[in-house]
Design goal:
The structure holds two protein chains of two kinds. Chain A is 0% helix and 54% strand. Chain A has no helices and eleven strands. In chain A, strands 2, 4, 5, 6, 9, 10 and 11 form a seven-stranded mixed beta sheet that branches. In chain A, strands 1-3-8-7 form a four-stranded antiparallel beta sheet, with no helix packed on it. Chain A starts with a strand and ends with a strand. In chain B, a hairpin with a 2-residue loop joins strand 6 and strand 7. By secondary structure, chain B is mainly beta. In chain B, the strands form two sheets. In chain B, strands 2, 4, 5, 9, 10 and 11 form a six-stranded mixed beta sheet that branches. Chain B is 0% helix and 57% strand. The chains are: A mainly beta, B mainly beta. At the A-B interface, strand 5 and strand 9 of A face strand 5 and strand 10 of B.
Chain lengths: 117, 111
């Protein structure tokens, strides 16, 4: 149980285009989903917290107009990188916290490798 | 906000020896401390976690200790094997329930 999927697993796009990444909890309902970014040889940095039916909360330094987050249901959150530039190239990972049971643990998706040319 | 520091950044051990990674945190309200193993290009994998009402937890070759007074927690891996080679991250929840990660430790187990 507690499986989180992400789609796509990798994407290559041209500078200036937008890219949408989906995060789904497959076998549980998630009150909260988180979006992280990880540059090579670095740690996971939290970008934003996504709650179903409400606006996402962004961490300091993360542009909300550039990284659009939508959490339309208890099983799906999307991150759209708008007007992507090469410096946005990174590994984007989502996680989800369950509505039921122990809700300290976060279940991570497999990540999406974004390369902006 | 929460600040998590992790040491060492790299750790090389001989197969069969023990590995210890240490972390400190700043937010006294933190109450959940997970440890993750991440292989290259993969998602972080939870290997063990501990809550603030417990001082020590063990799962086979892996153990975690927590000292709430000193605000530090440690991961201990005994009888290391080559497949233990990976990057390990500690984390702590802040007062908002968000995870703050340490910088990571690259563990290399040599046969």
């Amino acid at each position: 149980g507690a499986v989180v999927s992400q789609h796509p697993s990798w994407v290559i796009c041209k500078s200036g285009t937008s890219v949408k990444i989906e995060c789904r909890s497959l076998d549980f309902q998630a009150t909260t989903m988180f979006w992280y970014r990880q540059f090579p040889k670095q740690s996971l940095m939290l970008m934003a917290t996504s709650n179903e039916g409400s606006k996402a909360t962004y961490e300091q330094g993360v542009e909300k107009d550039k990284f659009l987050i939508n959490h339309a249901s208890l099983t799906l959150s999307t991150l759209t990188v708008t007007s992507a530039h090469p410096e946005d190239s990174s590994f984007y990972i989502c996680s989800a916290r369950s509505l039921a049971g122990d809700n300290d643990e976060q279940f991570f998706g497999p990540g999406t490798r974004l390369t902006v040319l | 906000g929460e600040n998590v520091e992790q040491h060492p950044s790299t750790l090389s051990v001989q197969e069969g020896d023990s590995a210890v990674i240490k972390c400190t945190y700043s937010d006294s309200a933190s109450n959940y401390f997970p440890w993750y193993k991440q292989e290259l290009g993969k998602r972080p994998q939870l290997i063990i976690d501990i809550r603030s009402n417990v001082g020590e937890k063990k799962d086979q070759r892996i153990a975690v200790t927590l000292n709430k007074t000193a605000k530090h927690f440690s991961l201990h891996i005994t009888e290391t094997q080559p497949e233990d080679s990976a990057v390990y991250f500690c984390a702590a929840t802040d007062s908002w329930g968000k995870l703050q990660f340490g910088a990571g430790t690259q563990v290399v187990v040599t046969p």
